[in-house]
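2024-03-11 09:14:02 DEBUG pipeline.ingest accepted 1 chain
2024-03-11 09:14:02 DEBUG pipeline.ingest length=181
2024-03-11 09:14:03 DEBUG pipeline.predict start
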Amino acid sequence: MTPDWTDTQWESAHAWAVKRAGGLLVQHDTSPTSRRLTEGREVIGAYGEIVWARFHGLPDPKWQNSGSDGGKDFVHRVYTDGGGIKPVRVDVKTSQKGDYLLVPVGQIRSDVYVLAHYIQPPEAYAGCPRITFRGWALASDVRDAPTRRFHSQGPINHNIKAEDLRRMETLERRLVAMEVA
């Protein structure tokens, strides 16, 4: 699922992500616990979150200048199977490959995880990167997933292949109203 946006909408979201990530670089890059796995990973993560917010008609996230969101990006109200409504915490995980949903072991803090694929346009194309939402998983799916270290310097992650995630349409049908966490 990819938002059907104009170039101006994509550019605005990307500019917001770059601005937010600039603050994170100042706050976190010198930390001994900071890991640099992918160049620009702060921008990539922020971009997935702002695209999710704007795609769902939310205001820009209020944690813009506050650093980490604690693994809970948004609170959504969803319809339950029994016809009720309940709040769920959603964490958007963005990656350049978009092939695995990765959640570090010991850091399952949300109810729902969404995999966002950051797609960089070819150099010949002057547009902004795009985001495609590949699928989602419940916290219980993540907890039950296999674990492994994907990079020599990275954490051990629960991992679910993109093709094994739940379809985005099944989550979208359940969404009632949302607010930034």
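2024-03-11 09:14:41 DEBUG pipeline.report The two ends are 23 Å apart (CA to CA).
2024-03-11 09:14:41 DEBUG pipeline.predict end
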